[in-house]
Amino acid sequence: MAKVGEQDSRWIVSSRSDGTNVSNWHWAEKNLSNSMKIRVTEKLQGLELVNGNITVLFTEIEKVDGDMTAMNRKGKTKYVYDFNIKMKWKGVINVTEGEKVEATGSLELIDVMVDDDDYQQKIIVENEDKAKYPIKDTIKKHVNKKIQKIFDDLIEECNASVSVQNPTDNVKIIQEDAPVKIIEGSQVSLGNSTSAKSVEKPKETKTDVRTIKQTITFEVPPQPLYEFLTDERKISAFTQAPCKFSTISPGGAFEMFGGNVVGTQVILEANKKIEQNWRFSSWPENHFSNVKLEFTEQGSSCKLTLTQTGVPSNDFDRTKSGWEEYFWTRIRGICGWNYKITHQ
């Protein structure tokens, strides 16, 4: 995630030459990953579970790994985090006075995420037998709520430290209700704007290019995810920047991020495939990439395959990271749909 003040300007509204975040139109972001790793580790020290005659003490924090980003707009702050935690523990069952059952082992919590305490658990009990089952069951049933409480408390701490940008009044970025007009030459203009964004068909270019490939598995069926990526209002909501479509059909022109991204729709197959000719306004004139988003249903989840060909090599890294930073993470933050991503 980019730190505050280090966002990639190509992905955000560029209506002011000074780059000011007017009226907090787009998210102001702050990377809290490093400080959160330290604070989570501190909070986990001495963590104890008590369940009747069973006590479990976490004796060693082996790993706290992950990231956290605070995103603010118009005075409202949202937190997106994803952590993996591994700890060693020691458990005791006080069976009767003078009689105890003791056990040791490890616990790994996978994908500790915001607004979700159903973390994946990997509990290992050394020399496991039936007498030790109650200890394992106590960990299984009670540790997630303890961890969630730790993160809730840390977010309260964060609220006191995350600065909020003050909006600048009386500065107009773009008319949200302005209609999209298609003009000669397959160009698109918004409302009464005199600046047109080129959406000509791709032409051969000598620009050195590379291909971005990502596989993203969202914990949601294809239909709502497809709708989120083809609805200009929903795109505007999660990108926090203007998005305009001339029409939701092949050949239709579009603008995203206030005109920083422009292009045309090539293929739209409901819940199956989106293909677009797509470019940043900062790329060489008339140079377009080709974006393909393919949706595959996997039970209650959706495997989304992104292939973007023709990306200028000198813009490859920021374009690649921008998909996760400005699309997948933002969708998760608004909808709560967890995801896992694989880069090829």
Folded structure, characterized:
The protein is an alpha+beta fold. It folds into two domains: 33-159, Activator of Hsp90 ATPase Aha1, N-terminal domain (Bactericidal permeability-increasing protein, domain 1), CATH 3.15.10.20; 180-343, Alpha-D-Glucose-1,6-Bisphosphate, Chain A, domain 4, CATH 3.30.530.20. Helices cover 22% and strands 41% of the residues. It has five helices and 17 strands. An eight-stranded antiparallel β-sheet has the order 11-12-13-14-15-16-10-17, covered by helices on one side. Strand 15 and strand 16 form a beta hairpin. The radius of gyration is 24 Å and the shape is elongated. It starts with 27 loop residues before the first strand and ends with a strand. 28% of the residues are buried. The model is unreliable at 1-5, 14-27 and 163-199 (pLDDT under 50).
